[in-house]
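Researcher: I need the complex structure. Ligand is nicotinamide-adenine-dinucleotide. Inputs:
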Amino acid sequence: MQRFSGKTVLVTGGAGSIGWAAAQRFSQEGARLVLADLNAERAGEMAAKLDNAIGVGSDVASDGGAQYAVEAAMAFGGLDVVFNNAGISGPVKPIHELDPQEWDHVIRTNLRSQFVVLRAAARAMIAEGKGGAIVNMGSSMGGWDVLSASPGYLASKHAVTGLTRSAALDLAGYGIRVNAICPGVIETSLGVPAADKQAHIESVRRFADRIPLRRIGQPEDVAAAVAFLASEEAQHITGVDWLIDGGQTLQSWANAPATHTFPWHLKGKPGER
Ligand SMILES: NC(=O)c1ccc[n+]([C@@H]2O[C@H](COP(=O)([O-])OP(=O)(O)OC[C@H]3O[C@@H](n4cnc5c(N)ncnc54)[C@H](O)[C@@H]3O)[C@@H](O)[C@H]2O)c1
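Model: Output:
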């Protein structure tokens, strides 16, 4: 498939695991790529591995950084698609221990970034007058699942749904579609944080045991859905948020496997912590 021939795609967080998988997918399908990431060096290195791609260092949660990333794409060939993917998990702390500055940081990175990139991209696309597609990064934590000790992360991902729907309605008249994807656990250092290789293997096995399709999601699974939503095949789809979770969120407490180990980050019984 060459669904993105002649199109320019901006991927924020493009030097990270899911961003990179999406960049490769878009590239295989003929796109020009702009990878925008806080880590400028890595964005450049990753872009160098693709045909027709550049990496730019940018804090996409800042007004200037978002604008810079969009202008880089415009200068590189126009702006047809944005994958609004940059994000962090934030500190693993219960709400009564989370500092307001830590809250601000995760909300800024995961939510403000999406707003300022959307705003800058929408303005550029409206000016170009040929429509476009924007895919926001949500999470199964945005309304389907609940993770303890991550209040900022959950709040930011819930908000992605509202932002996506609102933007989809505002931009539909310009031929700009806005959708969100909501992955469950994906095998990246963000999704499966682990101290070493053995701990990683163990975490992956435990997660896979709790997912009905019995495997942990891969960045390529997310990339495939992003490419579809960004393509003309999805021309009548806007304002949706799509789970990509192997059935993870179909399991309530009542039918969860007996090996249920949540919350995985807490050690000891209540009162012993
Ligand atoms: N891995 C999972 O299980 C999972 C599940 C659901 C949602 N997500 C979401 O997917 C996205 C990507 O996650 P990942 O697992 O690939 O993590 P990752 O850490 O590999 O990638 C995130 C990338 O975003 C970049 N970034 C962070 N802040 C930025 C900023 N202000 N400006 C520009 N770039 C910035 C980082 O440098 C990094 O390259 C995140 O939004 C995350 O919340 C991940």
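Model: Summary of the prediction. Residues 8-192+218-245 form a domain with the Rossmann fold fold (CATH 3.40.50.720).
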